[in-house]
Write a structure and sequence with these properties.
Elements: E1 6-11, H1 17-26, H2 41-51, E2 58-62, E3 80-84, H3 85-88, H4 99-104, E4 115-118, E5 123-125, E6 135-136, E7 139-142, H5 157-173, E8 186-189, H6 190-199, H7 201-208, H8 221-231, E9 235-237, E10 245-249, H9 256-265, E11 268-272, H10 281-296
Parallel strand pairs: 1-2, 1-4, 2-3, 7-9, 10-11
Antiparallel strand pairs: 4-8, 5-11, 6-7
């Protein structure tokens, strides 16, 4: 069993008008899919409170206080903790609009537990998930061993980031692997993130010095830590077949019924936006709000 506290960390963007004005100064050519609001954060928070009751704190990393909608009932829960970019990220990198860069400094959250879950605002825990799905016997739990022969990916910026991460992992361990895009909340040790950053600080910061938005040269330190644990047998494997996980690709959905089916069939759902989705994204965001509100049943959330 695991008796140590477990927190969850979520970088979150609330695209307010003032934020968007600042964003355009640096990121005018970035895809709209990187910043639009799909109505996922509220069901995300509700799902954690309801279905991961063993979580100690929910850390929401936001740019500043103006990002916080103080009238939301979900945010009044005592588990919610806000951390601002300036609290953890060196001033020379601010402002930043790159969530992968933000993750580099997770270990600077002063009161963050040693065992924590890195997640995103597009991941919904529809049903109860036991803590052993993430941590057991003091070790992080991986769903399955995915180490394999490294190869280049060339489909988009994030694929290039996975390439850069794979090369960094090879540099650290001598292992040629594919850095997987897990699209799921993953268990991480704070001390390992801190070690990777401290030991290779110069290299990591050099890769991010002109990366206000994601760039192919960026190294994903969360993915690095997660994979390093597999390489050196510092993790366990379990519960992979007991918890059903699905990715809801918005570009593939043409009706509410398809969303309802994915919600019905899975315990954890990742809502994956698409840069190709242009005309109907607002309609699908409304579907998400309606269907996940019904699925989580607000009356059961304390």
């Amino acid at each position: 069993m695991n008796n140590e506290p477990i927190d969850i960390v979520i970088p979150w963007l609330n695209p307010t008008e003032k934020w968007f004005e600042n964003y355009k100064l640096y990121c005018e050519n970035e895809s709209p899919a990187r910043i639009r609001d799909l109505n996922t954060i509220r069901p995300c928070i509700k799902s954690i409170i309801k279905n991961l009751p063993w979580i100690r704190y929910i850390w929401l990393i936001v740019q500043d206080e103006e990002q916080i909608p103080f009238d939301w009932e979900e945010l009044k829960n005592e588990k919610i903790k806000f951390i601002f970019h300036k609290d953890i990220i060196p001033e020379k990198f601010l402002p930043t609009f790159n969530s992968i860069h933000i993750a580099v400094y997770t270990h600077n959250i002063k009161d963050l537990s040693e065992q924590f879950i890195w997640s995103n605002d597009d991941i919904i825990f529809k049903n109860f998930i036991p803590q052993e799905f993430f941590f057991n016997n003091g070790k992080s739990v991986h769903r399955e061993n995915k180490l394999s022969i490294w190869k280049d990916l060339h489909c988009n910026t994030y694929a290039e980031i996975l390439n850069s991460t794979a090369r960094f992992i090879e540099f650290l361990s001598g292992k040629r692997i594919i850095a997987n895009d897990n699209h799921i909340a993953i268990p991480i040790k704070k001390s390992l993130i801190e070690f990777i950053y401290t030991r290779w600080k110069e290299k990591i910061e050099n890769d991010y010095k002109d990366s206000k938005i994601r760039k192919g040269k960026n190294i994903n330190t969360i993915e690095t830590a997660f994979t390093i644990e597999e390489i050196y047998n510092k993790c366990e494997y379990g519960l992979a077949n007991q918890i059903k996980y699905g990715v809801l690709h918005l570009s593939d959905l043409t009706s509410k019924r398809k969303i309802e089916q994915i919600i019905s069939d899975n315990d954890i759902i990742c809502i994956n936006d698409s840069e190709e989705l242009v005309k109907t994204w607002k309609e699908k965001a409304d579907w998400i709000k309606e269907l996940f509100t019904n699925a989580l049943d607000d009356s059961n959330v304390n």
